[in-house]
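@channel anyone free to eyeball this complex?
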Amino acid sequence: MSTFSGSIEGCELREIPVESFGYQELRRLRFAELRKPLGLEWTKAEGEADRLDRHFGLYLEGLPVGTVVVAAIGSGLAKLRQIAVSKAEQGRGLGRCLMDAVESLLAGEGVTQVELHARLEVAGFYDSLGYRRQGELFEEIGIPHVKMVKSLKRGGSA
Ligand SMILES: CC(C)(COP(=O)(O)OP(=O)(O)OC[C@H]1O[C@@H](n2cnc3c(N)ncnc32)[C@H](O)[C@@H]1OP(=O)(O)O)[C@@H](O)C(=O)NCCC(=O)NCCS
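replying in thread with the prediction:
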């Protein structure tokens, strides 16, 4: 398990092996924040994608408070998905801490650009982190999304 200290004291990003206990914990967090509010269940395709991708948790004083899943989609290019912070912990900078930490980690591995499909209602969160909106709006899991991209610099996000 690799760890990365976040910008908030006591906060740490950890990479979690798929199908481990930690993965099940993060999956519950993802379900509570990203699926349940929309009345959705996991699909078989989502389970299969999970086995291929990398799973990261943001831990505050050892407890999971945030999640992001990373897919390598090309040379120097990664896609971020399943970004969420526990409801009780939102609005205190942990989302920014989660994104800063995963971007720094990926930049250190040679990733130069990250992209994600943002729910339109939270696109402002990614705007504030320096992401750029790209292309037309589209629908995913029944709600409007916009593709967003960000260039990373080696050793830190741009
Ligand atoms: C979106 C989410 C990850 C943000 O995490 P958070 O911990 O609440 O965000 P932070 O407190 O770190 O906020 C960082 C910045 O983004 C801004 N921000 C946060 N949520 C925002 C929103 N919904 N719309 C616009 N701006 C937002 C904050 O005001 C803050 O700006 P500032 O640094 O200029 O003050 C979190 O609210 C969440 O999990 N939401 C539910 C699941 C979800 O929608 N995930 C995204 C799917 S694409």
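from a first look: The domain at 3-157 is CATH 3.40.630.30 (Aminopeptidase).
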